[in-house]
Write a structure and sequence with these properties.
By secondary structure, this protein is α+β, with helices and mostly antiparallel strands. The chain has helices at residues 19-30, 48-54, 58-138, 146-149, 154-165, 172-245, 249-306, 343-355, 373-383, 393-402; strands spanning 406-408, 417-422, 426-435, 438-441, 450-453, 461-463. α1 runs antiparallel to α7 and α3 crosses α5.
């Protein structure tokens, strides 16, 4: 079926942290197709009395068989679709949580820079105040130490700086002191403004993460309801089918499994199409956000170039550009041209994953009692000593892409990460390939960690975190 994500090691590759990008995350949450609810359209299930009556005529019997077949397929379709939609919702939560973590870090960093710039500006202001006092006394003016004594009165300090700048007595050294004070003041003001903006972005990110968490929980609940309904009705429908067709229960069960496989494939294909559409919408929104961020950076740079500048600032430099951008992408790893995985790492990863078989799927789970899909892959590689990008299928793909670890799926080897969805931002499920067309994964709500066939149509590449190490 589908797969989920884990919980520690949440530091993925860079995601731009701006108000626009937070809006993209929020939009992606809103764009999620609502999971199929167990109560959305409750069908009429046949009773044993209905079955016995249907056996009275061949025509009625065939009609009842067709009805039960349809119900079996519908149960499977609802459960599969709800599971995939739950995976998509949970992946959106992981992206929202990552954006919140990055926004929180950016806000803290900017506040530290703003505090440091403010201290530097105060020092420069004191030096300029002493200079103003000296020049006024030298000119026989009833001078003032106002700039020195004004403390936190920024308006008065700005006025005195302006007055100082118009003084004809300024020497070359005095000019440098004056220019430095103006530069440091501008830097402090710029950092203060950016720190305030960063706090607003962080608040938006926190709201988006809360909304995503609620959406993910609702989706998981709906998926569990669909699975529960399927489990409750399946055995009864199978027994009714066996009775109608005068077959053994085992034969009927085998037939039902085949019908369910067909229904599951159709549901997965439909859900994948919906996920692809969702991914395209998110990608378009992200491009719009990136374009807006580029325009914002250009405007900030132009504004900075128009500000007075003097000698090198002792603590207020670097105010230009976007201070809310996330850390740069990690540099590609040097693998000396080799794509071969490290056998020791692969063995540790698969050993850890196999030890978790039978543990329940838990949304946002990263052990020890249960996992979602990316939580399992994250913790399996953490056990082997590697951080593969955090808790989330998208973040694990992005880190693999940044480090040059993508390999064609036709060349998949044990230990590789197999993913479903649309790369990069429409991915929603991941498993650990173990060879022979099999993988270990935390499939979906209502299921357990298991070794299972690689189902459906994964994306065309796998991530090989241990290559070249």
């Amino acid at each position: 079926m589908t797969d989920h994500d884990g919980s520690s090691f949440r530091r993925p590759p860079a995601i731009t942290v701006t108000a626009a990008s937070i809006g993209v995350v929020t939009a992606s949450i809103a764009a999620i197709v609502h999971p199929v609810s167990a109560e959305a359209a409750t069908p009429k299930y046949p009773s044993w009395s209905d079955v016995q009556q249907a056996k009275a005529s061949v025509q009625a019997q065939q009609k009842m068989v067709d009805q039960i077949n349809g119900l079996v397929g519908e149960l499977q379709t609802n459960a599969t679709t709800a599971g995939i939609q739950s995976e998509i919702a949970i992946e959106s939560f992981h992206q929202a949580q990552t954006a919140l973590d990055d926004a929180t870090q950016a806000a803290a960093d900017l506040q530290r820079q703003a505090d440091a710039a403010q201290k530097t500006a105060q020092t420069s202001s004191i030096r300029a105040g002493l200079l103003a006092s000296h020049l006024m006394r030298s000119a026989g003016t009833d001078g003032s130490l106002g700039l020195l004594l004004q403390g936190g009165d920024s308006g008065a300090a700005d006025k005195l700086l302006y007055q100082l700048g118009t003084m004809s007595q300024l020497t070359e050294q005095s000019q440098r002191i004056y220019d430095q004070a103006v530069t440091d003041r501008n830097a402090a003001q710029a950092f203060a403004a950016q720190a305030k903006a960063a706090q607003q972005v962080r608040k938006q990110a926190a709201d988006a993460a809360k909304q995503a968490s609620e959406a993910a929980q609702a989706a998981a609940t709906a998926a569990q309801a669909a699975v529960t309904t399927q489990q409750q009705k399946q055995s009864e429908l199978t027994a009714q089918l066996a009775s109608l067709k005068n077959e053994s229960l085992q034969v009927a069960q085998q037939y039902v499994v085949g019908q369910q496989a067909i229904a599951a494939e159709k549901a997965a294909a439909a859900a994948a199409a919906a996920a692809a559409k969702h991914a395209a919408e998110v990608a378009a929104a992200k491009k719009a956000a990136a374009d807006q961020a580029a325009r914002d950076r250009a405007a900030a740079a132009a504004q900075h170039q128009q500000q007075p500048s003097g000698g090198g600032s002792s603590g207020g430099g670097g105010a230009s550009g976007s201070a809310l951008s996330a850390p740069s992408q990690p540099a590609p790893s040097a693998n000396n041209g080799s794509t071969a995985p490290d056998p020791a790492i692969v063995n540790a990863v698969i050993s850890y994953a196999r030890a978790q078989i039978g543990k329940p799927y838990i949304w946002d789970g990263a052990g020890p009692t249960g996992f979602d899909c990316s939580g399992l892959t994250m913790m399996a590689y953490a056990y082997a000593g590697l951080n593969i990008g955090g808790h989330g299928v998208v973040s694990q793909y992005l880190q693999g892409q940044a480090l040059g670890q993508l390999v064609p799926r036709s060349q998949a080897l044990p230990g590789d990460l197999v993913m479903w969805g649309t790369a990069p931002y429409g991915l929603y499920h991941v498993g650990i390939y173990v060879g022979g067309g099999m993988m270990i994964a935390a499939p979906t709500v209502g299921d357990v960690v298991k070794e299972q066939p690689v189902w459906g149509t994964p994306i065309d590449v796998v991530v090989r975190p241990s290559m070249g190490r």
